[in-house]
Amino acid sequence: MSSPxxxxxxxxxxxxxxxxxxxxALKKLKKACTSAAIFVELKKRSFYVPPSAARxxxxxxARARDAKAARRRAAAGxxxxxxxxxxR
Length: 88
Prior knowledge:
It is a single chain. The protein folds into two domains: about 1-45, no CATH class; about 50-88. The relative contact order is 0.06. The protein contains four helices and no strands. It is mainly alpha-helical and about 90 residues long.
């Protein structure tokens, strides 16, 4: 992982050829930043999160993810098909 001060290899670079091409270049830059997840990284680094709070947040996200998976499994019904039960 690179340090925050070193240039990143996955940075978004958009060449601008002339003044008339500026609007198009801005659109391409926004799309490149979105695909490189630069906005997500900026949002994560916008304020300091202490390690203990980061662990609590990570655990809460894991619990929510597991609960969502459990709800989906419950909504899907039993893991077998009805014709499989006849053969048992």
